[in-house]
Amino acid sequence: MTANETLFARAQRTIPGGVNSPVRAFRSVGGTPPFFTRGMGSRVWDADGHSYIDYVGSWGPLILGHADPATVHAVQAAAANGLSFGAPTEGEVELAELLTRLVPGMDMVRLVSSGTEATMSAIRLARGHTGRDTLIKFEGCYHGHSDSLLVKAGSGMLTLGNPSSAGVPADLARHTLVLNYNDVEGLHDVFANEGDRIAGVIVEPVAGNMNLITPRPEFLATLRELCTRYGTVLIFDEVMTGFRVGLTSAQGLYGITPDLSTFGKIIGGGMPLGAFGGRREIMEKIAPLGPVYQAGTLSGNPLSVAAGLATLRQLEAPGFYAALTEKTRALTEGLTAAAKRQGQRFSAQAIGGMFGLYFAATPPGTYAEVMAMDTAAFNRFYHAMLDLGIYLAPSAFEAGFVSAAHTPADIAATLAAAEKTFAGLAA
Ligand code: PMP
């Protein structure tokens, strides 16, 4: 047995599925997940000593690559001063100031420890603010694992082929209405019928948990207009898109301002951190100012805040996103060209530093189109690429990420591996 296989067998004896988050188990692509021992820049190393060019980046946080020196240094310096206080610190204020300055829809913000906590708290706030119970989400969007949001969700739920979880009371699930992403007609219908009962709409402004689907321009605009008209709280879940698609996140990119937004991943620089924030009058409903309760022992943890600040400050460098966008586009255009040369039915697209790969002639625009993709072809592609040292997300339903640490040589090596892989699939 290889070292990875030995570790995986051992892990499965004490950890369900051997993993602490389901998609890590490689269930959909099959095989043994590499156990990582080290990461540096664009690369990771596994227990067998293999190295890979990493396009997962811890599922999005690592926009500067692994072990970014300034981020690591900031965490070390913070740790030397104490790991946690459960009391306010100046770093939290700095991070709040930075987030409210850069994110268009954010007047006030509260820090939490994960994306799940951020979305869970934002929907409680939407309900508390409006005095209504109904929540709208979109099929295939994933917003973390709180009860109300595990209804027809994406990411690991799609990977495991079961988009709704056991253990969510039917009484609770009935308050979550599920619509089709990009379906403008469906929005008009549901608001016409129940608009005055809808507390909030939560949406990924670019869907990144059913592979990658970009929003039709009228989709986000219609959402904004209907939510305003009916007094419904519009929540952009920017846990993935936040600081990934641009410095002002998806809301800045599309020029549509939500009432609340949720963040995670990049804002913690690889440490556990999430945030929800938005319009002042809504945020003032949170305890201790208002009646909506939300709290956390480790919220605003000094190490997480230090990592987040050290990361975010580097994203403000002129040209950062132009370079990241250009590099990500070079990757997706190169992959598409390689597939074409090898006669493969394949497409790809990038937005900022995130990308989607599709075993379909054109990028999907709906959940149904995602589900119609050739997952068997993806799985063959996945393992061939892994064998050639390219680490992609182990599921056809996930987006990929490029970091500032990826070099032109990394992109060229990835394209060479893909050319070989597509040729193998064709043979
Ligand atoms: N929302 C979105 C859009 C996400 O992509 C994720 C995680 N992938 C979450 C929420 C949940 O975040 P976390 O895993 O940090 O709880």
Automatic annotation (TrEMBL):
One Gene Ontology term, aspect cellular component:
cytoplasm
Q: What class of enzyme is it?
A: isomerase
Which pathway is this protein engaged in?
Porphyrin-containing compound metabolism; protoporphyrin-IX biosynthesis; 5-aminolevulinate from L-glutamyl-tRNA(Glu): step 2/2
Q: CDD domains given for it?
A: OAT_like
Note the PANTHER family from the entry.
GLUTAMATE-1-SEMIALDEHYDE 2,1-AMINOMUTASE (PTHR43713), GLUTAMATE-1-SEMIALDEHYDE 2,1-AMINOMUTASE 1, CHLOROPLASTIC-RELATED (PTHR43713:SF3)
> Subunit notes for this chain?
Homodimer.
* Name by which UniProt lists this protein: Glutamate-1-semialdehyde 2,1-aminomutase
Q: Which organism is it from?
A: Rugosibacter aromaticivorans
The beginning of the lineage is:
Bacteria, Pseudomonadati, Pseudomonadota, Betaproteobacteria, Nitrosomonadales
